[in-house]
Amino acid sequence: MSAEPKIGLLVPLQAKPDQVGAVADFLNVGYSLMTGNQEPETLQWFAVKYENQPVYAIFDTFAVESGRAAHTGGKVADALRANAGTLLAQPPDIAGGHLNILASKVKPTGSESDVKKGLAVGLRVLVKAKESKISAVREFLKGALSLVEAEEETPLWYALEWPGTNTFGIIDFFAGPGGLEKHLKGEVAKALFASVDELLEGPPDVVKTDVLGVTLQ
Mean of the pLDDT values across residues 192-199? Predict the structure, then answer.
């Protein structure tokens, strides 16, 4: 974990009803394309499935823009574009997935040889700040890192902002459901939900995810 992630991509992939399994297979191929340091500037790469939805997603992080540009022009993105018409209900919005990483916790999982790197489940949380509270939400998420650092069962956590919008988010990963549930009952979640009326346009959009594949630099 030599470089700190500063920017990223989150690209949801809505499978056609008869292609749900095929999208999972495609992401397994994507994992193989990401192994072996084929993209040295891609710091972390995650393939996940949203719980109880025919929706998958790719989330990846970079230290610099050159890494993101190389990835969006790389083998996985090319394969995704080539197969989107067959597999997906709508084209992937790669440009709309560009985001800034406000803060992050990235700890070694001790399972480097495992396809999932010892991770099983995660969360994707999206919030929309009130226009007058964008700066306050940004600072809230940056400040949440100190609380997450104290969560031993939260090894990977990212606070996100989609630049030029009022959308923010959190993505994190856990070894099992126990760590996820502890996090949902932890101080960050309590503070976030307590701030809804003051800071946000509405309640957070929380989706649980199943981890399919992970690469960590």
Answer: 94
For the chain, the average pLDDT equals 94
Q: How far is CA 37 from the centre of its chain?
A: 20
Provide the residue type at 66 as one letter: S
Rounded CA separation 89/184 (Å): 31
pLDDT digit string (tens) for 82-99?
999 999 999 999 999 999
**How many other C-beta atoms are found inside a 10 Å radius of the C-beta of residue 70?**
16
Helix, strand, or coil (residue 149): helix
CA atoms within 13 A of residue 134's CA, in its CB half-sphere: 9
What gap in Å lies between CA 117 and CA 36, rounded to an integer?
A: 14
Q: What is the pLDDT of residue 2?
A: 57
Neighbours of 150 (CB within 10 A): 10
The DSSP line for 53-81 is: SSEEEEEEEESSHHHHHHHHTSHHHHHHH
Residue corresponding to tokens 């996940």: 48
Runs of H (alpha helix) within 17-133: 20-34, 65-72, 75-87
- What single-letter DSSP state applies at residue 189? H
pTM, full prediction? 0.95
CA distance 30 to 181: 29
Q: Which residue has the tokens 């923010």?
A: 168
